[in-house]
Structure formats: C-alpha cells, structure tokens
Amino acid sequence: MIRRSSRIVVAMLCVGLGMTSQAAGQSSQTVIDKGSRVDNGIKTEYSVFLFANAAPGMTLLTDFTKWGDEPSVSVSARWYYAGLEGRTVHLYKITMELKGAGFVETERLPVLLPLAQDDTTILSVHPMKAKPFRLRIKKNQDMSLSGSVVK
Predict the structure, then answer these.
(1) For residue 9, is pLDDT > 90?
(2) Where along the chain do its domains lie?
(3) Average pLDDT of the residues of the chain
C-alpha cells in the first residue's frame, strides 16, 4: 500500500514538473530596462521585461516597480496576449498591487492593435518608472507574438 501511494505521489510530481516546464517555456526574456533610484527620499527599484514568444494566454511584457524598503509598495503591470481576431491583436494591460501576501488586480485595460500588411504593429509603452519606448510586435506563423524595441 505504501509503495502504491508513493508511486502515485511520484507520478503526480512528474506531471506537475511537466506542467511547470511548459509554463517555464516562456522564461526566455529580455531586460528592456532595469534600475534603481531615489525619488523624493524614497528608494525606487524598477524592471521591464519582454518575453521572447507569447502564445495566446501568455504575457508579452512586464513592468515591475517597488517603492521603499520593507514594508514596501509594489506595483506590477503586464501586457497579456488574449489572441487575434482577424487582423487585430488583442492585449490586456493588467495592473496589480501588492496587498498583504499577494498581488491583487486593480485595473484591466483592453488594448487593440491593427496589424499592418507585414503582420507587425507598434505598441507605445509608458512604464511607471523606466523610460518610455515603442515595441514592434510581430505575429508569427503559429499565431504567437514576438517583440523588439524600436530604436
């Protein structure tokens, strides 16, 4: 009986690890901007990351800002790829704040971007503390999105 239950636990762990590695498939990310500074005597840390390929249901871009030391105030924004409808890219800019032990969603804004003939579009990004930039988004053959910063 113990051997059977331990086999079940091992099987569940293997399945869980497989799911984690699939979710981690989006782990390839590029740092757009990262740093810290002092604003009005308050230490601020920020980072903006771009994920290499975002399939529908995944995050394309994240913006994280933390003010102060412990206890601190943290805000995170992410651009979530909801999918395509015709030649329109559907994103959501989801803003979350650290409340208690976890993040709580405070705002969800729809972002609709038309695709040009070359299957690209431009998103203007204004992070909370990092420098603003423009992101060229490309629709790939498998309907995922990839992005690059416009210089």
Answers:
(1) no
(2) 28-149
(3) 82
